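Troubleshooting: if your tokenizer reports a length mismatch, compare your output against this known-good record of 447 residues.
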Amino acid sequence: MLMLIMPMIVPLLLPSFWMSSMFTFLFLSFMFTIKSMPMTMWSVSINSFMFIDSMSGPLLLLILWITSMTLFASSKVYSFNLSPKLFVLTIVTLAAILLLSFTCNNVLSFYFMFESSLFPTLFLILLWGYQPERLTASFYFILYTLTASLPLLAMIAILYFFNDSLSMNLSLWASPFISSFKFWWILSILAFLVKLPMFMFHLWLPKAHVEAPVAGSMFLAAVLLKLGTYGLLRLSFLFPAINFSFFNTLYPVAIWGALITSMICIRQTDMKSLIAYSSVGHMGILLASIMSSSCIGWQASLLMMIAHGISSSFLFSLANSSYEIFHSRNLFLNKGMITIFPFLPMWWFVATLSNMAAPPSINLVSEISMFISILSISSSAIILLPILSFLGAAYSLILYSSTQHGPLSTSTTPPTLPNSSFNLMFLLHSIPVLMLSMHPSFIMTWI
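Known-good structure output:
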């Protein structure tokens, strides 16, 4: 793990630390991809506290890739000298914490890394956020995350008391819960359901996204939400029977929550808020797929984690570029982009295509697989899932057509030329979205 973390720190000591950090993460992601491609079924124990397997491997690659993209998207911080070195240090710290989170072989270490990711994210929102409301958003973020994680800490303490072990291999533990195991199970996964976030526990997410800088939004959507799904997948994989027993409880909340948030998306006027609510909808389907406790459901869930991570980061970076051009995120004011910047609509088209899970994006493969896993358990989903797909396509098309077509708004300041590095960033987002659809087994063979 030091081989990954040390190269992340060294660029901070160089004069050209911004470019060095950006391309270091890009290089590390390429090298990690090349090294892991022949090992789709691999498990490497680094030491007694750390390990990498074919579930955490793709997520480590996602972290490295997204970190590089956040530095591309945040070039304004460097250009306007908004404490750029502190910004890069915060990004590197957050990336290191997330890398350690996905490689922990110790439940208590995972819990502390899980909670530690809160602080760099708060720094990003508070120090580089846009509006005074970022204080309220930070309060919601802390309140939901810390409150929901306390039962998980209690669960860890009780399991250690009974088993004298904190290994992530939970199947080796004795069963201290006979009659009350289901009660403790739901308390344990509460922290992950909030981080996911499941509908009803999602109120912190739109607030955090709207007030965060582009780097915070990209990290939140692409990686931090995946901490919740990762923890849920780990527990579900080791206790499938208990997990499946909660399907009838959580499935209706997940699917109906996805439908409600999809309808909310159609009524949104703020681009970042629309993308944030769409994430809640996608995570609802993912939760139902995990709770199905089927092999294809778990495989599709991991694939969806990667697909959603890339496409949501893509959309937030595009929303940021539109904000820098028109100085507004309002859909009614961001119009006619196709008439002045013909290259940007192409990237918007690819991003919205992946968000609505249209071919040839990797999102299509993951959604079809998740639908199969859900339909194999609940026949009622045959009515709800097509409606959900239709709504997803509807708000994605609204997002695209509202920003690209129509006359230029006269209510905003004159549009400014976007940073030239944006095209490279958008290209680097597009490549995995399209390429992974040709070889989804690179991610789906972890079981």
